[in-house]
Amino acid sequence: MKKPRNLSVVRKSFVTPHMIRVTLGGEDVQTLPQDQESAYVKLIFQEQDKRLMRTYTIRSQRAEEIDIDFMLHEDGGPASTWAKEANVGDTILVGGPGPRKMIETNADWYLLVGDMTALPAISVNLEFLPDNAKGYAVIEVVSEADIQTLKHPEGMDIKWVINASPGENDQALLEQVKSLTWLNGQASVWAACEFNSMKALRPFFKVEKEIAKENLYISSYWKLGNNEDQHKVIKQQDIE
Known about the structure:
Elements: E1 5-16, E2 19-25, E3 40-47, E4 50-62, E5 65-71, H1 78-85, E6 91-95, E7 109-114, H2 119-128, E8 134-141, E9 155-162, H3 172-178, E10 187-194, H4 195-208, E11 216-222, H5 228-239
Parallel strand pairs: 7-8, 7-10, 8-9, 10-11
Antiparallel strand pairs: 1-2, 1-6, 2-5, 3-4, 3-6, 4-5
């Protein structure tokens, strides 16, 4: 990982009741490469004698600042707790950025699927789709108040799934996806969510719908009851 940048909190605001946006700036932010929206960064926290890293998506990037959106969990980890408590002027070490996670745009239509942890990346993907893109975005949120107004091509139909207990119903996203009218032609699919929800979706895309490997991005961003370090181990086991 590249040497971490020391960034400072410029401002913060609630996007919805369960999502807070922290804007980071400072001299180091200008050394970030351009066009990093949807790329991931590592936020670095010092807890007693341990250094913890938590992965987040760059939601927006401007010349002198970036926005990072944090989903607020009831059992908040170090990152969401920091976001809630951060004040203007506070600093944080930020590693990365890592690769952007963008949907392949070589298809006849598009399907984006995810929960609130993936909402920043889905939002960026919707903004970068061609104007004539058609398809669906299926997004799980905690409450109706967490539904956001998203910029998207007219042909993309956004379906919101309300799930008050994220991670507990691993069929919620799959059920909504199965209810969609499957469009003609080659689909390009981008999906990211809780680990068990991802495992429910994966065979539907790979086996039932036979989505080509180059047109399928599917990943888990977290696992209920696990911190990021534990989740990373489980993800590796799943790959193997």
